[in-house]
Amino acid sequence: xxxxxxxxxxxxxAPATEVAGALHAxxxxxxxxxxxxxxxxxxxxxxxxxxAASEGDRLEIVHAAERVSPNESPAAIVRRKPGSSLVxxxxxxxxxxxxxxxxxxxxxxxxxxxxxLLKRLPGVDRPAxxxxxxxxxxxxxxxxxxxxxxxxxxxxxxxxxxxxxxxxQDLMGRPKPRIGLLNIGSEPEKGNERTVxxxxxxxxxxxxxxxxxEGRDIIHGRCDVLVxxxxxxxxxxxxxxxxxxxxxxxxxxEQERIRTPLDRSTIEILDYxxxxxxxxxxxxxxxxxxxGRSPPKAIGKAIGVAAKAVRSSMIGHIARxxxxxxxxxx
Length: 330
Fold this sequence. Notes:
This protein is of the alpha/beta class. It has helices at residues 16-28, 41-50, 77-80, 85-94, 107-118, 154-172, 193-203, 215-218, 230-258, 265-270, 296-311, 314-328, and strands at 2-7, 33-39, 59-63, 100-103, 128-129, 131-133, 141-144, 179-182, 209-213, 225-227, 278-281, 287-289. The strands form two sheets. The protein has a seven-stranded mixed sheet with strand order 3-2-1-4-12-11-5, sandwiched between helices. A five-stranded mixed sheet has the order 6-7-10-8-9, with helices on both faces. The chain starts with a strand and ends with a helix.
């Protein structure tokens, strides 16, 4: 039986959103998944009652009295709030009492607690947040880093590519994922010193590196894994989200004008709730980060992402791949 801890006090709508998301996940996941709701027991139980649900074989509650707020220092969370739902949930994972952790709490706090308690995998200097980006080919693309590391060195970008390579194989079904480096031109000498050196490292890595990818090529799905620093990645991610909202509003207005239902499958492609959470890759465990404003569907999908990572033994695969790569890349 697989056990996944869910920070029930993380989202803007906690714990209602998390309880609904957990029930959504259990209705779609195989019977081997148990969701452990971590947070205020009384409030969680009240939400379960509202859904005519209760603790059972596939649903458990672990009480945690405190909640992490967005304005708290991520670096001090573990020390100052060890009884919070976030730290308690990561702690359950560290002790092997659960197989994965999911949270819609503050991204920095989830990252800090995951790195501090789960530790980094050997060969990883900086864990990265990977997020899925929709493309016109209807096959999504993994981009990392999406905001964890604002300043990166060339070797960090190489490590992101290695992490993304395994994720794309295990969770996206891409046997030989195409790796691209975000840049301002396609030529190897384009960009700043960091991207030029990163291009050289990626070219010698043995990965299926297709070269530099310009912004205009991203949406067409030119690569399976797009590597960049957290600054550019976060800007790109938020731009994508704003464009998705814009397109959805335009489609809704057009539907009202012509009084004819439009194809809602397009909206589903753009809706981030369809993709669940973003995995923190490079830590010794499965830690999935969701938007603070995630709807229940997104929480449920994130639990699905965590379950798939556990089933595929992704962490062990990453560790082995990093060790093999270290042996052949100086």
